[in-house]
Design a protein that fits this description.
Chain lengths: 158, 503
């Protein structure tokens, strides 16, 4: 937990440094039309940098004193999260190819079957009906086009 | 009375059949969103913003608003029956709501929660209806320095309420502002922090960030704990309603106290979540029967629920009068208004009175309509939670992805959403408050232009931010708010030291 605290604070510090660097490139002083483009990000970056320095210092101090503390993720939590995260990323990659609705059919089927352990009739029914209704609501009624992917249009012609 | 006639006009707008239907749909969606853990008010509204692009602004804001009111009502159902807060502001209700439900009085617990919500909402509404025009009139005098001062005040109030460490709140605010400044600079047109990449040129959309931070982040937190849905079955009978009303009268002091705390925290941006905790703490502190708390005390349900709804409703006040949202969900609704081309702020009252009063009228209507809906259909909404989480979860992620994509029709936003989900999870775990970051992201360009215009007005002299008569007290107040907690904790410490030294 405390290690993660330090790492995240360092990450935030990096964000601050990036903002500072870019602000210096743009100029953060007084230009022809008042404050220059980098003015605001400069002070935001400076602020985040100063704050994270303090956070890191206190975190390192408590780390030295009290040890690493509880783990960030309780036991078994990480596997459960990865079971969600990795299929979700997979679905996004699949969306690039066959579109969001079709990718969701597989995603739902995977989740309901593997994690939910329901029988196949329910799996097939749910994983087809839900994306279909979403498709009708968003693409047809509200006319919000959702990603079709590379081949999506060829697979669903309507 | 000018206010009363405007109010009647607003009610008239809200009671038009189409708007009434929209309100009903919004409330039902909102209650469902409120009941489901992982889908909250903020990201529920964010997902539905793209749908409202085709509507007229009044109906659009009624839909978005009603989702929020519905989510406020629905959050309690999940807390009371399942001991799992459906919403962050419903955490405090689990302390007493679940024990009461487990003790076989689930119906009464639900009724108490709903009625407290209704009363808290009315407090917020009275405040909104009567003070909004006055504050808007006052705010017409604001120039850029005053706007900047109000924003500083907003954020310093947030640092005090956010997490345990004010430094982390400040980091979260700065991070939000930095994300908001990615893309084209509004004044000079220069590209900032894009590193010559095309996707970054569009910047980060706050809707995508909200969906990721609140939606996915929440889901990760929920699955990490290995959620088990084991709830109490409940039915709301007339006897429960009668008993609930009686209890409300008995605990009227707690009810009023909770509502007032809610209104206060809603107006000075705190939002419903800290309000509910604070009200619970106050109710417990002032109660005669402290040992009853945690075992199903009625006042332990009433206080946080009244505060949550009071805060939610009162948060509308600074949003429409000053353009400063009082809670993260309000920030998202305000972002939606900005997309529709309506700039919340004092000018809105002058230019679009029909819109403003229609909104206020719709909140009145939604408050009562929502109460009836939850009372009548609470068991039905609770039944949603009996669906297996492994079915609900992918559907929630699917809906989140639709919302994230539909804002700009960009595929990259779905990737951003996942990244924001991981950030949200880490922030939650490490006690970085997310609400200030969302607020900063929404207000980013407004705050920046206010600061820069003010500096141009003052020819580069930062003393312009302290100009009397309005900016000066606001700035002093925000500095005081920011410094006060550290001073008071320091005083407590030194007092404790003295005590220890003396004895």
């Amino acid at each position: 937990m405390r290690k993660a605290d330090i790492i995240v604070a360092l990450g935030m510090m990096l964000v601050g440094i990036i903002a500072l660097g870019d602000a210096i490139r743009l100029g953060f002083g007084w230009g022809i039309s008042g404050p220059e483009a980098g003015f605001f990000p400069f002070y935001m970056g400076l602020g985040i940098f100063i704050c994270t320095v303090f956070i890191v210092i206190t975190a390192v101090k408590t780390y030295r004193k009290d040890g690493p503390g509880k783990p960030l993720i309780p036991e078994g939590g990480l596997t459960r999260i990865l079971w969600i995260l990795i299929p979700a990323i997979g679905v996004v990659l699949l969306t690039e190819l066959i579109g969001l609705h079709l990718a969701t059919v597989f995603y739902l089927a995977f989740n309901i079957r593997v994690l939910g352990k329901m029988n196949w009739t329910k799996v097939i029914l749910l994983s087809i009906l839900v994306p279909l209704s979403m498709y009708i609501v968003f693409d047809k009624i509200f006319l919000i086009p959702l990603p079709e992917g590379l081949w999506g249009k060829g697979i669903i012609p309507f | 009375m000018d206010i009363l006639s405007n109010w009647m006009m607003g009610l008239g707008v809200a009671l038009q059949p189409f708007n009434l239907m929209i309100a009903c749909i919004g409330l039902i969606l909102g209650i469902i969103i409120g009941v489901l853990p992982g889908l909250g008010g903020a990201n529920g509204v964010a997902i539905l913003i793209p749908i409202t692009f085709t509507m007229n602004p009044v109906s659009a804001v009624i839909l978005l608003g009603c989702i929020y009111w519905g989510a406020l009502y629905g959050g309690g159902i999940c807390s009371i029956l399942f001991n799992i807060p459906g919403e962050p502001w419903a955490v405090a209700v689990t302390f007493d709501g679940y024990p009461m439900a487990k003790g076989g009085r689930a119906g009464k617990a639900l009724v108490l929660s709903f009625l407290a919500h209704g009363v808290g909402g009315i407090f917020g509404l009275v405040l909104l209806t009567f003070f909004a025009p006055i504050i808007a009139e006052f705010a017409l005098k604001f120039g850029p320095p005053e706007t900047a001062a109000v924003m500083v005040l907003t954020f310093s109030a947030m640092t005090r309420l956010g997490g345990k460490s004010p430094l982390k709140s400040v980091v979260s605010i700065f991070f939000g502002f930095i994300l908001a400044s990615v893309g084209m600079d509004i004044v000079t047109g220069k590209l900032r922090m894009t590193f010559d990449t095309v996707p970054l040129m569009g910047g980060f959309n706050f809707i995508v960030a909200v969906i990721g931070l609140f939606g996915l982040g929440e889901i990760f937190l929920t699955v990490e704990e290995g959620l088990k849905m084991e709830g109490v079955k409940a039915k709301v009978t007339f006897k429960d309603i009668r008993e609930g009303l009686k209890e409300l009268v008995i605990h009227r002091k707690v009810l009023v106290l909770g509502s007032l705390i809610g209104c206060w925290l809603g107006v000075q941006p705190g939002g419903a979540t800290p309000a509910s905790f604070m009200a619970y703490g106050f109710a417990k502190g002032s109660a005669a029967d402290k040992d009853q708390y945690g075992k199903g005390a009625s006042s332990g349900i009433i206080a946080p629920e009244a505060a949550a709804h009071g805060a939610g409703t009162a948060a509308t006040l600074p949003m429409i009068t000053l353009g400063i949202p009082g809670s993260p969900t309000m920030a998202v609704i305000m972002g939606g208004l900005l997309i529709m081309g309506l700039q919340p702020g004092p000018m809105l009252f002058k230019e679009h009175p029909d819109f403003v009063w229609g909104l206020i009228g719709s909140i009145w209507v939604a408050n009562f309509l929502g109460l009836i809906l939850v009372m009548a259909f609470a068991p039905l909404f609770a039944a949603i939670l009996r669906i297996k989480f492994s079915v609900l979860m992918p559907i929630i992620i699917y809906v989140c992805a639709i919302g994230a994509f539909a804002v700009n029709n960009r595929m990259i936003d779905i990737y951003y959403m996942i990244i924001f989900g991981v950030i949200g999870y880490l922030f939650k775990k490490l006690d970085y408050p997310i609400a200030p970051m969302v607020l900063a992201l929404v207000l980013g360009s407004m705050a920046e232009s206010a600061v820069r215009q003010a500096l141009i007005m003052g020819r580069g002299n930062p003393l312009i931010f302290f100009r009397p008569p309005i900016a000066l007290p606001l700035m002093l107040l925000s500095i005081l708010l920011f410094v006060w907690p550290s001073i008071s904790s320091w005083r407590k410490k030194s007092a404790a030291k003295k005590k220890a030294g003396g004895s």
